[in-house]
Amino acid sequence: TFEEFKAKYLSEMPRASAFLSHGMPYRAKNRAVPTSIDWRESGYVTEVKDQGGCGSCWAFSTTGAMEGQYMKSQRINISFSEQQLVDCSGDFGNHGCSGGLMEKAYEYLRHFGLETESSYPYRADEGPCQYDKQLGVAQLSDYYIVHSQDEVALKNLIGVEGPAAVALDVNIDFMMYKSGIYQDEICSSRYLNHALLAVGYGTEDGTEYWIVKNSWGSRWGEHGYIRLARNRDNMCGIATLASLPIVKRFP
Predict the structure, then answer these.
(1) Domain named Peptidase C1A papain C-terminal: which ranges (predicted)?
(2) Each residue's pLDDT tens digit, 200-229
(3) Number of independent structural domains in the chain
(4) Which domain holds residue 238?
């Protein structure tokens, strides 16, 4: 049932207004924003991952955004460790497999280096923190936020800067999604329960859409991705809790 699925895979995301964000509100730069973009084509996006029966979508959203920005600054496509965030960012307000928030993971990454997937592999379970400073690769200097529910701002952020961490309100129709441009008239744009990575946007037959990477394996949706209707009143909250880290090498 959806209730069982929800308990296993989803986690309530705090509302944007419910916590104090230390990120910088994104101001559109005076640069041309492409009419469509897909960062997968430039190597900014790693393979589709699978969070398994752990409510760690927030960690996958965080690593996805970090991966894109590491590629942008270092020109290396590297897969980062979700497990490190699950095990180690509790002091910053995250709750492992019981849920968390990308911006709390960013605060953790201001202080600690992020290891690669290969040095700290994913287990789909919570465990003691096994962070090894010697193996840290990337760190965060700051991050941008779009909390305005403004899809134009989100388009600017993704079009100019790269893939962004986002959160959505997903329901049973989303769970059953197979292909096409997803439209949901009943999902909330405020009460969000699942974190993902927006990797681009485009238009098909006049319908605008976002390209969003999920963490439910490559057999879900369009090879692990969903195209979500764009400029439809911030459908499912895509622009309610969006963010993008500014990444640097560690140490």
Answers:
(1) 33-246
(2) 999 999 999 999 999 999 999 999 999 999
(3) 1
(4) 2-12+35-249
Tens digit of each residue's pLDDT (9 = 90 or more) over 88-140? 999 999 999 999 999 999 999 999 999 999 999 999 999 999 999 999 999 99
Q: Give the residue numbers marked as catalytic.
A: 57, 194, 214
* pLDDT for position 76: 94
CATH number at residue 146: 3.90.70.10
Of 182, 152, 153, the residue nearest 168 (C-alpha) = 182
